[in-house]
């Protein structure tokens, strides 16, 4: 067995295993009580903002954009420094994606760039909490409000983080989470949409379940029979099963521990690498209380690829997060061109994610540090 250190990894306890097994022994594998329990448990970490559980972070974005009602002719302003789903989920609804540049230090959507990008067709401003560090959500809310648009926070990296004393999930009109294996907590695959708006939540719940209308009072043909259900607007099946929701509820009980351990490792990297001339360590803005999903080291002087290969050759599973979204051929084919967001492209050219996950030991982190310093001859 290889001793390759992954850049991210799930942390599964015996309690997690038992929580899943308990559902398997019960009556409900899906659309049962574990779903509503997980949604309530998640809301306890979002300042009480209600949650709708879905099958992935990508599904959460697709559902959130559906709840926002976007379609052809509408524009979504977002960051290119993200996984492609933030943009592609909007494009799949027929909206035009408008990329605005990022802050050069955090990699988060720059409010000034977003302000310059909004038009009277902007329906959503979608920020991403890169690496777990919340975006400038107060300023971005102002940008969205001026445009008459909704603010969406793609918090795939940042469940458990807070901004200026308020938990992620309580700051935007719509917030989306991802519970993929490498994220801050996992349901294997999974995600959620949270919103303070009853109307947006209702639309999200409907879209998650094919758009089915079961309430007789809302049906167009209520006398069809006791079995009757109708679709008034198209949706998809994005239901997260009880088995995975039980895992999520169990993981949420360990979230604060995950946060502490990730912070310890982050600080260990900072302390050991801050004096290296060839790198730049991540920044933390005043007011940010971060549950770090990534450790995004910046490698200067065009040496990122060489360091990547040096570490991979030593069985250290570093990663690059992310290719600017509009560099993907699917956006290139739509007419987007390189050079659009210079800060994002520079950030991408320098970014390298070092291993970061709760079960990473101090000695394993020191192995990463030693290999990085060795590369620079330090």
Automatic annotation (TrEMBL):
Cite the GO molecular-function annotations of the record: pyridoxal phosphate binding; transaminase activity
Entry keyword annotation includes Mitochondrion? no
Which prosthetic group or cofactor does it need?
A: pyridoxal 5'-phosphate
Q: Where is the active site?
A: 183
Modified residues annotated as N6-(pyridoxal phosphate)lysine in this record: 183
> Which InterPro entries does the entry mention?
DegT/StrS_aminotransferase, PyrdxlP-dep_Trfase, PyrdxlP-dep_Trfase_major, PyrdxlP-dep_Trfase_small
Instruction: Write down the SUPFAM superfamilies for this protein, in alphabetical order.
Output: PLP-dependent transferases
Q: Which UniProt keywords apply?
A: Pyridoxal phosphate
A biological process (GO) annotation for this entry? polysaccharide biosynthetic process
The organism's superkingdom is given as Bacteria
Return the similarity comment: Belongs to the DegT/DnrJ/EryC1 family.
What is this protein's name? UDP-4-amino-4, 6-dideoxy-N-acetyl-beta-L-altrosamine transaminase
Source organism of this protein record: Prauserella muralis
Q: What is the lineage of its organism?
A: Bacteria, Bacillati, Actinomycetota, Actinomycetes, Pseudonocardiales
């Amino acid at each position: 067995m290889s001793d390759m250190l992954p850049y991210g990894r799930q942390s599964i306890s015996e309690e997690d295993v038992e929580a899943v097994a308990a559902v398997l022994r019960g009556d409900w594998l899906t659309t049962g009580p574990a779903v509503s329990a997980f949604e309530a448990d998640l809301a306890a970490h979002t300042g009480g903002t209600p949650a709708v559980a879905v099958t992935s972070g990508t599904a959460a974005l697709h559902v959130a954009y559906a709840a926002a009602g976007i379609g052809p002719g509408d524009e979504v302003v977002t960051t290119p420094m993200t996984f492609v789903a933030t943009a592609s989920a909007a494009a799949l609804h027929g909206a035009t994606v408008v990329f605005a540049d990022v802050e050069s230090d955090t990699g988060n959507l720059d409010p000034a760039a977003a302000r310059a990008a909004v038009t009277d067709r902007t329906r959503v401003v979608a920020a991403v909490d890169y690496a777990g560090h919340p975006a400038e959500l107060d300023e971005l809310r102002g940008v969205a409000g001026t445009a008459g648009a909704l603010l969406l926070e793609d918090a795939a990296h940042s469940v458990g983080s807070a901004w200026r004393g308020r938990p992620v999930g309580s700051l935007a009109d719509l917030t989306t989470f991802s519970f993929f294996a490498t994220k801050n907590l996992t349901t294997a695959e999974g995600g959620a949409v949270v919103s303070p708006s009853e109307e947006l939540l209702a639309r999200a719940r409907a879209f998650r379940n094919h758009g089915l209308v079961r309430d007789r009072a809302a049906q167009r043909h209520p006398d069809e029979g006791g079995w009757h259900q109708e679709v008034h607007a198209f949706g998809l099946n994005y239901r997260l099963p009880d088995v995975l929701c039980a895992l999520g509820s169990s993981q949420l009980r360990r979230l604060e521990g995950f946060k502490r351990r990730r912070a310890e490792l982050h600080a260990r990297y900072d302390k050991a690498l801050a004096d290296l001339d060839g790198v730049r360590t991540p920044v933390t803005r005043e007011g940010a209380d971060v549950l770090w999903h990534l450790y995004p080291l910046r490698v200067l002087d065009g040496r990122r690829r060489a360091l990547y290969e040096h570490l991979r050759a030593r069985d250290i599973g570093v990663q690059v997060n992310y290719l600017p979204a509009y560099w993907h051929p699917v956006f290139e084919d739509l007419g987007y061109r390189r050079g659009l967001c210079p800060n994002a492209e520079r950030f991408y050219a320098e970014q390298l994610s070092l291993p970061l996950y709760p079960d990473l030991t101090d000695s394993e982190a020191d192995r990463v540090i030693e290999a990085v310093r060795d590369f620079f001859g330090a």
